[in-house]
Amino acid sequence: MQGTESQSTEATLRRIDTSALTVGDVLPAALRDEQGHVLLPAGRVLQERDLDVIGERRYAGVFGTDDWPPIFFEVRAPAEPTNPLGRDPLEPTWGDPNGDADAVVDFAAAPATEGHVVIKPVERLRVGERLSRPLYTGDGVLLLAAGMVVTHGFLARLRQQGVYEVQTSVAPPSPAAPGSAGPSAIIRELDDFLGTKPQQDLTPNTRRLYAAKLGLADFRTEASGATERYAEALERVADVTDDLLHGRPAALNAARGVVGQFLDFLRLDAGLLPVILKLKQAPGEYLYQHALNVAAVSVEIAGQLSLPPEQIVEIGLGALLQDIGMLRVPEQLRLAPRALTPDEQFEVRRHPIHSLDFLERQHGLSKVAMMIAYQVHERGDCSGYPRGRHRLFIHPFARLVAAADTYVAMTSHRPYRAPVSPYQAMVNLLHEVHRCRIDCNVMRNMLDCMSLFPVGSYVRLSDGTLARVWRANPGRHTSPTVVPLNGDGSETDVSVDLSRGGDLRVVQALPGVPDSACTTS
After folding, report:
1. What are phi and psi of 40, to 5 degrees?
2. Whole-model pTM above 0.85?
3. Are residues 120 and 157 in the same domain?
């Protein structure tokens, strides 16, 4: 992407703090390399691929001239002794300033002793300051690791989350739970796990290990039984949650049993899981049904990837348990019938750390499941939480469950809003893909197994007939297989595959279950 234009005087170049650049930003001036050659022209709207190019130059750096606003330039800290810890190898380096600066700014004038806590207002943090010790929130949530540089983007995220002061210590400032190494220790383990394990390919797979197998009559019979087992599973999730809260060892086995049942449905027929979901639950039942529905949708998407059964179970388990930390968020915030204030949002956004605190005490729970619980609310454009990570540093299975979690949340009752239709939720997810918040490959797999007009929802066809979506057709996201309705709203005993050609197509997604009065064209 390197252009031919260069800057005649190298001394006019200044290094740009790339943490301030995000997808959709318009470049105020040209981005250049260290020789002054144009990498990206002025006025360019940044795309994800542009940020990848910038990220690849995290060591060499990108530069600008005086036509850039001063706020975008890196600020170098005064020279101090070299940080003996160096850059934290477990912290992602995408978007960070150049790692060749020797400057280290000590956070406290006097060395901290074990358990000694130093509190500092956020406004005293300086852009360009390289930390000799990690920064934490008041309850031990890691904000920035030792050796990292304070950037404009980091300070902006603190302001957005309502963080007004931070603290540092040789040890995490909050005491560890009994039998636990503390939140920062497990976070470090997960970061290490993410950095050393090969990443799972989420590219859509045309070879389906779990496919549609049942005829319409047999499918209806199995769906009826599966709906009853779903209700039983909901009661088991409540018991699992109670066991987790009280540290009982039976919790993990019971949770695996719930996910294993979903895998059995998947093996029997890939279309069963979307049909049995109860997405528009009552507000008081939100937490348990949300967990169960997210697990079911996650298992469905994982099945479309033709992953091994043991991996699907771990994905489903992480999805089922990922919101357990919400039980530490005050109920008046969880069920608030209004938008939350910045301080309240910050309180809610700490729940992934609370989830880890519960889950790390469960012997036998995989790192994958804990990683999902930790990262499910991260977003590819760095707008997520708890750490605002870029897509490259979010585990693929966490990105998968993130799509399922978002879909279920949008189609469910919340105290402050009504649910949207399954179709509208899919449209909203596609917008999130465009904003680089949801993984595009995950979205393709989700459409392959659930359709743009999700399985179980109702549609109007081009001939005026109303129908229920029965099966998705991979690669033909707007042409599912449907079951037409009779004039009284009941289902016929025939199915129509809209992907096999012909003029019949979906012309309208219906918001709910039609009654006999809306079956006319």
Report:
1. -135, 130
2. no
3. yes
